[in-house]
Amino acid sequence: MNAAQRNRQAALLKATGYEDSPALTVKSSEGALPQGREISFAWLAGTVLTGVTSFMLMAGALQVSFKGQDTFSTPFEALAITAGEDVSSTPNSLVGKTRRAKPITQTHSDLEVIETSIREVVDGVARIRNQPFTTINATLATAATALSEDIPEYDPVALLARNEPLRANPATDLVSTDIYGADVEGEVTVRTAALELGDPPHRAINDVSAAQFVRLSVEGAYTEADGPLMAYAAPGASLRELGLEAPPGTMAGVAENVTIMPKTRMAEDMSNLRTERVLTIREETPLAEAFMRNGFTTQMVTAVTRAMHNLFPETDLPAGTRLRILFGPSRGTDTLIPYRVSIYDDTVHRVTVALTDQGRYVTALEPPVIEFSEEDTEEVNLGNLPTIYRSIWETGRKHELDDATIDRIAAMFAYDLDLTRRVSPGDSIEILLSGTAEDGEQELLYVALTLGNTVRELFRFQTEDGVIDFYNPDGETGKQFLLRRPLEGGGTLRSRYGYRSHPIFGDYRLHTGVDLAARTGTPIYAGGDGIVEMAQWYSGYGRYVELRHANGYNTAYGHMSAIADGITPGTRVTQGQVIGYVGSTGQSTGPHLHYEIKINGNTVDPLAVKLPRANTLPQQYQGEFEATIAQVRALINQDGTPADPVTVAASE
After folding, report:
1. Interaxial angle between packed helices 403-414 and 388-398, expressed in degrees from 0 to 180 and rounded to the nearest 10
2. pLDDT exceeds 50 at position 425
3. ∠ at Cα 138 (89, 174), nearest 5°?
4. Integer Cα distance of 586 and 600 in angstroms
5. Can you give the three-state secondary structure of 328-389, one letter per residue?
6. How many CB atoms lie within 10 A of CB 581?
7. CA neighbours within 13 Å on the CB side: how many for 176?
């Protein structure tokens, strides 16, 4: 650039307002603010330090306030600090300010103690006495709370091993369900003796009295009025002879309260993992007991009652009280914990306690108003439904069954069902027990599991050899001929039976079994009693074992990491015996068990095929078993309404 160009450029800059200025200098007027092109290191350092300090203080304040939480404050939602507009709801509507309405299902949870007269034979002497029975009829739990947090891990083989058929104790009286034809007071002993024919009986009635008795009996036989015409039932009478529809006065029942499963009328604008219950207390119940039955731990009960003590000092909940409980997920587990609990006198709010982000329960404002109704339903969180296994445990503990009984119930259905499947809304369970919880140990007599439209019933029955087992109405035990998921823990289903795109070759072909994923080294069990046909490396199956069972059934196990010692062709194995370990040998993309069931050489779906039962009740017991079924059905079909007893005899 020459001199003329530089001058022209300077003139243009000056015309636009720019002009040459002196260079920046760190020398400023002493004691004054920097002026113009002057710079003060003291002022610069002060500005930088102020900014850094402000940033650190704000970051520290946020860290302290959130305490590591990565979600918005729960108390803000639970306490409802800003009053929102009322949302009206109807019993069949969930319309409200919610991003996603959750489905509602009607639920029930009923426990009844029915006392009836039964007949039992002890040492050849027939005794008639009153016997209480407990019936439970409830929908399976659709929310997994702290009630079932510490249950045993699901392992079908170990579960079945813990619950082999029972052996009757000779010192223990057999539980009788032989219903007597009328109610009695106390205990009646009936003894039979041979009639002495050598001595004629004394004349007790005259001919006129006998004729009157005959006339009244004949007239009564043709009357339309209902009522007991006999003061006793024949010793050999069955329920079919007596009639399943007993006249009034035959049964006496006492209904006992168990907290009813809830009903939610609207969904709040909260996380989709939250669910709300509304429970109605049917009779006076201790506050702590009501909380414990609904998923509160002992520590939670203590914290909640302490928080509400000033506003709600009562320790018992009277009949008609409503509990409204909001559940939410617990960090790191699939267990739901109580986020908020409210107590109502019918529809009048008394107190609300909510959980803070610091894990403390504090008093809170009343939650958004809902419309209560007589029937109770439960808000169903389809994204967080428990497995059938955990739901059985949750429901059993809610009704205070002992763990051994719950474990046996789960075991009885483990052969026939995939208990790792999610429960569906409306699934239910029905149970009959001898005695009451207050009497001590109860015996399980009957259990029915309703999943969808399928009902599976099992009845307790004892054979002459003292073995006690549970049979379906056809006289078959729940034990299946073959296991459907023969590995420790049941594995995780990764691929079903049927046509699919092969994960390695990419072509569309039939998958001849099911793939159950598990960690390498997980024990694999024999699906049933049988003989080893193959135990070797077999093409794309890797290490492979095939067993031959009775009646043309075969099972095959592929991709093993190792075959168990002693498993060689010709070896006899029993159901549940370890035959190998999970691996990823052969054409496999990860550790899993490839399991096949073959019938006459043709593969079938191991999870869907109808398998024969392992044990069937001998024909000689068929009549007695049918009588037991009729007696049990007569008990569970009672409505629990107390009736006027028919007094046969009273003990002194």
Report:
1. 150
2. yes
3. 165
4. 26
5. EECCCCCCEEEEEEEEEECCEEEEEEEECCCCCEEECCCCCCCCCCCCCEEECCHHHCCEHH
6. 22
7. 17
- How many whole angstroms separate alpha carbon 594 and alpha carbon 436? 47
SS3 316: strand
Give the pLDDT confidence of 342-377 residue by residue, as tens digits: 999 888 999 999 998 888 899 988 888 887 777 766
Q: Are 182 and 232 in contact (CB under 8 A)?
A: yes
Any idea which of 140-149, 263-272, 277-286 has the lowest mean pLDDT? 263-272
Helical H segments across 33-91, by residue range: 41-66, 74-79
Task: Quickly state the pLDDT bin for 62 (edges 50, 70, 90).
Answer: confident
Who has greater pLDDT, 157 or 237? 157
Residue 444 CB burial class (10 angstroms; 0-12, 13-18, ≥19): buried
User: How many angstroms separate the CA atoms of 234 and 224, rounded?
Assistant: 23
Residues 6+ apart with CB under 8 A from 86: 368, 369
Enter the tokens of residue 51: 């900014």
Cβ atoms of residues 281 and 259 within 8 Å: yes
Sequence letter at residue 127: R
Specify the pairing of strand 530-537 against strand 166-167: unpaired
DSSP output for 420-440? TSBP-TT-EEEEEEES-GGGS
- Mean pLDDT (whole number) for 586-592: 91
Sign of CA dihedral 271, 274, 278, 281: negative
Residue 535 has pLDDT above 90, yes or no: yes
Give me the mean pLDDT over the 594-602 stretch: 92
Query: β-strand 592-599 against 602-604: which pairing, if any?
Result: antiparallel
DSSP per residue, 444-498: EEEEEEEETTEEEEEEEEE-TTSEEEEE-TTSBBS-BSS-SS-BTT--EEEE-SE
* Dist CA 578 CA 525 (whole Å): 4
DSSP single-letter state for residue 523: E
- What are the residues facing 548 on neighbouring strands? 531, 554
Q: Are 394 and 386 in contact (CB under 8 A)?
A: yes
In this structure, are strands 361-363 and 348-355 parallel, antiparallel, or unpaired?
antiparallel
Name the pLDDT band for 194 (thresholds 50, 70, 90).
low
Retrieve residue 583's tokens: 């691996």
Residue 161, CA distances (Å) to 156, 157, 479 in order: 9, 6, 12
Mean pLDDT rounded to a whole number for the chain: 76
User: How far apart are alpha carbons 512 and 467 in whole angstroms?
Assistant: 39
Identify the weakest region by mean pLDDT among 52-66, 157-171, 551-565, 624-638.
157-171
Mean pLDDT is lowest, of 40-44, 280-284, 506-510, for 40-44
Q: Which residue would you say has higher pLDDT here, 86 or 140?
A: 140
Q: Which helix (H) or strand (E) holds 581?
A: strand 578-582
CA gap 451, 419 in Å, rounded? 11
